[in-house]
Write a structure and sequence with these properties.
Structural class: mainly alpha
Radius of gyration: 15 Å
Distance between the termini: 33 Å
Oligomer: single chain
Largest sheet: none
Shape: globular
Helix content: 40-55%
Number of helices: 4
Order of helices and strands: HHHH
Length: about 110
């Protein structure tokens, strides 16, 4: 594998993640989404991600509680989900787990 090119990550991407993570750290606690018994699951993150995408689709420009754009929250939730998957703390749903369900996001 080639060396990763971190210069492809824009400052705006880093700032969006930092803004949402700092807001969460102030509201709850630093790194609370990663550790502890109450840490969110992949499903929790997915539900939040979908809510933020829905808000964006409705034209909402700021999340009521934080004042931050919903796409920034969605971007951060995706990052949290990737982190959990990469750390093998939770596995993403498999194709077999989707069969027979009306909603593929469950």
């Amino acid at each position: 594998m080639n060396k990763l090119r971190f210069d492809y990550i824009t400052p705006e991407m880093n700032e969006a993640l930092a803004e949402v993570l700092m807001n969460g750290a102030e509201k709850y606690a630093p790194h609370d989404w990663e550790v502890g018994e109450s840490a969110p699951t992949i499903r929790d993150h997915r539900e939040s991600l979908l809510r933020h995408l829905h808000d964006h689709a409705l034209g909402i420009e700021k999340v009521h509680e934080s004042g931050i754009h919903p796409l920034k929250h969605a971007f951060c939730r995706l990052g949290m989900m990737v982190t959990l998957i990469e750390r093998n703390r939770e596995k993403p749903p498999t194709r077999a787990s989707w069969e027979g369900r009306s909603n593929l996001w469950r």
